[in-house]
């Protein structure tokens, strides 16, 4: 019975439990020590144990929150700063030390965990990522801005990634700064390009370029951010879509799709949509710059073929300029 209760708690927390939770399940401190000696429990941080000898990144994040006293996962102890950025996929990799913010003055210190104090964290500041309480993306960027070593370039990358993933709304930073007017990170954020905090309607700068290209084509207007469901039932949103042709155009920017995990996720999503009858065309910045007219012709031809079943009779009629017309030598004619 005790083992079943412990296993139930650990399943919800990626394989980790705190000493308080073990005691609540019915173990004594002596029994906990005996299980450690018998390799049935594995110490992770002071007062936190794993049921298996190895933990993934999410399990380690849980351990950091539990170590800081967040047994109840009630939002008074949350992952924050660079740890929250990693949990929210705003940045690649895992920070060398986990950052945890605690509301109030209680909390312990241990090697590998950096504790921060906050007077308050309201519901607008707390998000759950895979069940782990973290600061929201806007609050995370604000907290990271307060770190003296953080550069403006790092903040811009975090902000763009948060906007791309739809974790930071257009007025997200303005809102968090207004709610925390004395936060030490606010000044550095105000030095950023104002356009970064007021982007409307698009997820990435490349999407703006794609939108400009599509607006000049002899096609029906594409639907922006159209919700789609793949063959497996997985839901997603298409950057630009034509339901009549079951055609999708995606702005395939390096910022949002450059990591290996993001690359694989995009291809898996494309395959899922293809199985449901959708064709996905991905446009890169290089295509728009070096072969803009050819790219435009390709989109028009693909739409025409899928919408009517007939290829366009005339090519190169999109009106888009930028590609030199091919020339033939006398020997080629």
From TrEMBL:
Q: Where is this region: Disordered?
A: 312-333
Q: What is this protein called?
A: Uncharacterized protein
Read off the lineage from the record: Bacteria, Bacillati, Actinomycetota, Thermoleophilia, Solirubrobacterales
Residue ranges of every copy of the AbiEi antitoxin N-terminal domain listed in the record: 5-52
Which Pfam families does this chain map to? AbiEi_4, DUF559
Q: Which InterPro entries does this chain map to? A: AbiEi_N (IPR025159), DUF559 (IPR007569), Restrct_endonuc-II-like (IPR011335)
The chain positions of domain DUF559 read 238-301
What start and end residues bound the annotated signal peptide? none
